[in-house]
Every structure is written in structure tokens, then in C-alpha cells.
Amino acid sequence: MPPTTDQELTSLLRNTANKDAQSFRQLYELTSPKLFGFVLRILIKHEWAEEALQESFVSIWNNAANYQSSLAAPMTWMTTIVRNKAFDILRRHNSALDIDGTTIDQEITENMESAAHTPPESLQLTQGAHELARCFKGLEGLQRQSIVLAYYHDFSHSEIAGQLQLPIGTVKTWIRRGLERLRLCLSKPEQA
What we know:
Elements: H1 6-17, H2 21-43, H3 46-63, H4 74-93, H5 106-112, H6 119-137, H7 141-152, H8 157-164, H9 168-187
């Protein structure tokens, strides 16, 4: 099958806006593999990615009339919907993960406290996790969010800039300065 053009996808979205089920099915078949790969990269868990994709296509069906080709390419518009659904699902399924990075993911702490480590290793890892959480709380909200998206969700700088709707240079600066602040904080013992 030849690659799908933006014009073809735009046409399918217009038809979907008119509740043409055949066009919607075709849109789904053409775009869902790529969108699923994208959302799986964010959510990691296969069942969460399926849930996000399903909710995204319901949203696409309901909001196709709002698509404006002058503002974004069809895949860009749909990818934004999928990304937002992915974050909704992260919030819904994992209350320990705060997208702005206010808390450190519970799974990381649990892994550090795993029985697979010897007691001294576990103690050292647990103390390290608490130190990291303490230092992380000292970062500004958008700085934390940028670092979480970059290192926990493996977003590129340009993806983070798109998600936060900020210039890429700002995102790079926040990440660089945030990592430096974390390094400095971790090198100092906690003040009691």
C-alpha cells in the first residue's frame, strides 16, 4: 500500500466529520498502527496503549469537524489527541506518577526496595531514591515536567517542546539547568 498523503487523510477527516463510518474505518486502518506505536512508547503497557488509542479514536470521531488543515497536518492533529489521552490514562491508572514530576514514580521506589537486592544494596538504593525525590521537589514545576518527560517517558526535546508548547531552546535549558541542580543537591547531605 502506497504512503498516505495529508490530502487523503484530510479528506477522510472531513468525511468523518459528516459521520461517514466507512471513511472513519479507513482513517483508522491507515493511521492506527503508527499512532499505537507512538502511544505505546509513552505508556509502555500494552493494555493502557490500547485504551488510549480507543479513547483517541472516539475523540477523533466526535471532533473531526474541528480539524483545520491550515493549523496542523492530519497526523499532527491526531497525534496530539493521542498524546493527551495517554497523559489522561497515566493520571488515571497511576496516581503515584504526577506528570509535572511532583512525585517520583512508585515503581522506581518499589524496584529499589526489591528482594532481588541484598539488604545493604536495598538500603543504599532506597536512601538514594529518597534523596532524589527530595532534590526533585526543589525544582520548578516546568523544569520537573521537562525532566520527567525526557527521562521517564523518553520524549525528545522537540516532543517536550510540543507538549509544553514552548520553544525547544527553553526546554533544553530547563533540562540542562534542572539536571545541574539535581547533581548539586545530591552532592550535599540533607539539612535536618
